[in-house]
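# step 3/5: fold
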Amino acid sequence: LLLHRDPDLGIVAGTQPGGLYRLGDDGGIDALSLGEPLPVQSMLRDDEGTLWLGTYGRGLWRQWADGRRERFPLPGAGLVFDLTEDRDGNLWASTVRGLFRIRDSAFMPFGEAEGASDAVFVVAVDSDGSVLAGAENAGLFRITADGRSSEPWPMLAGQSVSSLLLRDNGELWVGTFGDGLKRFADSAGGRLIGTVDGLAGGHILAMVERADGSVWIASDGGVDRWQDGAVEPAPLQQAVSGTLVRHFRETRDGTLWLGTNDGILAWDGESVRRWNRDDGLAGNIVVAIHEDPRGILWIGSRDGGLTRREGDRLFAFGAEQGVPQPSVLAILDDGDGGLWLPGGEGLTWADRDSLDVVARGEAAQATARLLRENDGLRSAQFQGGFQPAGAAGPDGRLWLPTNGGVVGFDPDAVLAPAPRLQSYVEAVRVNGEPVALSRPLTLPATLNSLEIDYTAPQLSNAENVRFRYRVGDDGEWQDAGTRRTAYFTSMPAGERVFTVQAKTDAGPFPDPNGDSARLLLNRTPHWYETPWAPVGVTLLLVLMAGLGYRLLDRRARGREQRLEQLVNRRTEELQAALAKVEEISRIDSLTGVANRRYFEERLAATWKMAARAVRPVSVIMLDIDRFKQFNDSLGHQAGDECLRQIAEGLQGGLLRDNDLVARYGGEEFVILLYDADADGAARVARRIIEQVDALKLRHPESDVSPYVTVSLGCATARAGELEDPYVLVDRADRALYDAKRAGRSQLKVFATSA
């Protein structure tokens, strides 16, 4: 299968049964130990000394310099034909599933592929530097401090971990979704604290240890305080009645701050103060609170973004102020003047000083940057709403939960200066016809269209390379964005230098005389642009003024028409491309129904329309029962097919064109019904149950039914009854969990009086 010369091993041969052999210094054949039979058919040692092995049917493997070996996750790519490394350090793998690019990333993910879980809710860092990650239906995982391995916490297998607290006495408190909380002195066993012990609810959302040693616990039933070995209702229980507390923060002055679904509360031990969107908060669903070293509070909301509180003054940041995404699920300070703000669209880094300047009215926009998958993230959709939704390690590394597992990163590495790019001129078209590149490039006097194509080779994040160009050494720079063609309809006679520069989205442009592509242009002059032209032109104008005027006017109109046609054609192409991108961005690629982002857009629009028309809005939350067991027993391909058929069944259960089915995340779907009261929504929900039952999808591991079943939660409200539509979504979600607690495969309707 393989004959290869390795810089360390020499001549190496791989065989079909799975052996790897090298030619020894004495001419003999030595077998190389791989730990297990691997039919190696391609091999590469990269610049860092890591050995990569492409196999026939066993995927891609890498062996570190210390001898560790692991399989590298390439989706469905069991056959790896060839490997190569480019000058940027990217590894390229030719496989049966196509070409894959593997590159170093400043982000270190730990998800299902690394032996952990993708659906991570909370993350904390222990005193030894190890990372604890709480996941949905997968318990708790511990990632070693060196980031080399992860292992499950055996006492919590199969549970949904929704909150973590590392106490000063070394105890670990683990809050679960539905099973109360457990106290661990070590990993050998834990003591359960539940509703029988006085907890207000079994769904634990947040915990904090206060300076007096008490522990405050937020659940779906309210807020409790654990003190002196007993649980009791918190003194401010009445103030949080009717809402959910999602975050605690005790500031240095002893004030306890609570983030809720209805704004933020401050309790000084005697009285409670409240702020919400009407008071200047960016949003009502507060899920993160951070106090910086100066005592300034930074507040993150899921439905509005970032708020700064200094004294009693609130300042809300949005896109106009330079903060690029409308949700902030956690706030982490890197200790170097940067705030890291994960959200539903990616990870935002913001310079804290620039935020201060904007809040004081001294600047219009802050310095911020939004990081997505193209920047090295496995998933740009971060998780929030549970505490802690982020943590900092003793080495300065930050850890955050995403729907692709927990991710850790060194802020300095993420913000490292981008590589400098060299630009090149690729092609030139004169009056619509391609011409050969020459120096100088001679242009005709009749020039009316000049197009110059340029590029900057970049194999990583190439779609975010930006360009600027100018004509003449003293000309103004034109920002071309990501466009790779410069258009001109005229050019002055004589010699001019065309200069183009490139940069990555995160870096600056080079110095004006730095890395650039230059093209010398020489436009041939018209006869009237020659030195003797003034005399001849004067005589010609006297004799033929009328004819000359008409001729020049006709020529100008012709140039204008051609330019207008060119601009119209390019505009139509751009509009078509944008329409296609917009359509793709709204659809979940697996199920074909709307994605969560589009659901949130439709929810806001439907809520406004319902408010104007005084009509009810209903939301149905749906969860596939025991879906993890379905996946474990039948495989992920069967799970994906199940999701697609369920999505088709959901759409079949709707009768109106303006109703919406969307995938909310994982095996969870949401249905949005405009002008549907509680009875109408319940009828739709029952029709959906019938549609799913009719599919008869076998579920060998379900304790509910031999076939796949679903649980549904329904909630209805009018826009005038609630200020925020996400409260309606939250109610439907709570009704869904009531259905699951009641045995699954049924519908529960949120009772307003409950």
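# step 4/5: annotate
Helices lie at 352-359, 411-414, 533-585, 596-613, 627-634, 636-652, 678-695, 725-741.
# step 5/5: archive (pending)
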